[in-house]
Amino acid sequence: MIPTHYFLILSAILFTIGVVGVLTRKNGITIFMSIELMVNAVNLTFLAYARQFHQVHGLIFVFFIMAIAAAEAAVGLAIFITLFHHRDTIDVDEANLMHW
Amino acid sequence: MTWGDTIYLLPEIVISIGACLLLIAPVMRRGGGVVRASGAPSGGGARTAKWTMLAILVLTAVAVIASSGLVADVAQTKTFASMFALDSFAIFFKLLFIATMAMLVLLSDDYLAASRYSAWEYYSLLSFALCGMMFMVSGVHLAAIYIGLELLSLSSYILAGYFKNELKSTEAAMKYFVLGTVSSAILLYGISLIYGVTGTLNLMRIADAMSTLVTNDALMFGIMLLGAGLCFKIAAAPFHVWTPDVYEGAPTPITAFLSTASKSAAFAIFARIFYVGMHHFRLDWQVVLAIIAALSMIIGNLAAITQDNIKRMLAYSSIGHAGYVLLGIISVSEMGLYGVLVYSVVYVFATLGIWATVLMLSKHEYAGEQVSDFEGLHRRAPLWAFAMIIFLLSLGGIPPTAGFIGKYFLFYAAVGAGFGWLAIVAVLMSAVSMFFYFRIVMAMYLRDGDGQAEVVSSGGLKLVAAICLVVTLLFGILPGPLVEQAKISGGWVAKRVAANNAQR
Fold it and tell me: What separation in angstroms does the CA of B18 have from each of B14, B35, B118?
């Protein structure tokens, strides 16, 4: 059996890649993909722990997270499409109408 | 789960059905025709939607009051496999949310009618958000809390961008969405690490598991990430960057929603998670949260001074208020919990009153939002100007307004917990906050101005302002009933904290 901490290291790496993607990318969709990567890294953590504990709680929570991530995708893409209608771009750096 | 447990969910079931009803009602009315958010004529439909929404809220309030008969105590947290607690703490916040929501409906009414957007979907989304808030304050399991929080957040993202033909609104929604989902992912990562160390997601069992543990890196990391996610939701610095932009760009009643109901729901789960679940390691997280609280108060209140847009100014002021409420959470005592409860009520009513005044000046989408629009208001609308002073004094924490009572509890709790320096920062920053609150007062009374912003006060706005004024003054002069209610509502959470504090 593969030790739990292998999964945890992988998920920490995936989460970090996601965070770096959010911070450095400018395209809205790419940022959104990075966020999904972060969420899936969390899912992997839950699954690794649930396997270690032989528990069903962690597994069920993952299903909830996936359902919520799907809802998030629907809302997020709708917002990006609306933004595209206004600006003809989803470059987040262009969204500078409000600043102090 | 048994069918017997379902009764505990009655308020949430009522509001969910109501939300679905609001969503399908316009389609039914037009015989199955397609209704577009932007194309639908408002007018009569908007009025019907308002009354339907108010009726649903009344039904939900009745359901909450009916279900409050079921409140026992800790035993109540056993429902739905110990995921859902119907305790006095949850009831307190549910009633506060419903009251806030009813006032928001009255605030939104004219503003929506003047816009081109459908009122039905708007109220439907508000109902879903209310359902999420009610669910999360009842959650005693991190999964339940997370699901409630996401229902609230997803509805809020859409509502922030509800004026989809306005670039400002869309931009606010985009910023809120990107930062909101990142913070949710961070919060989830924290939950997953806490799950990994304690082997459970239930707050009471997490507390039990933690009491046998010594400090460990994964757990500290988990608590920190969870705290960071929650700090984003309450808009505490340095996780506050989204607040000014979203508050400015969102439709004004939605800004009012985000700064009142949505924020106090986040305070409630913050208090519940950290009081019940993370109590054992309080010495570790207290210091971190104290720094966050100090930063919020300093950044929020100092940045508000230079703002000319009233929505932006109130956004920074609300960052400062998140810092004050954190004082109550940091102190980890009964007093701190009562402070959080009292301050939530006080803050919600004072803030809603201010938003009523702002909405009175906004004829349509983004008009009447500058501080200069308030110039000479005491001649155009003397009563409104007077009410505005009371609300601003309450936010500043000056007696005899209710804000003083809220701040008294929070600052006293912080001193009692050994955070005297933080209380000093809080008092200083309250003084700074009076400076920019008085900019509005000066504009209203000392400047004449051209009076460009037209005064359009409707019955709904007047009613909301009157309610807020009465509550703010009443609880300021006679704080007894509110404090007593907070002590009752603190319930087992307060007792548990007191017992745990006594053990050490």
Answer: 6, 19, 17
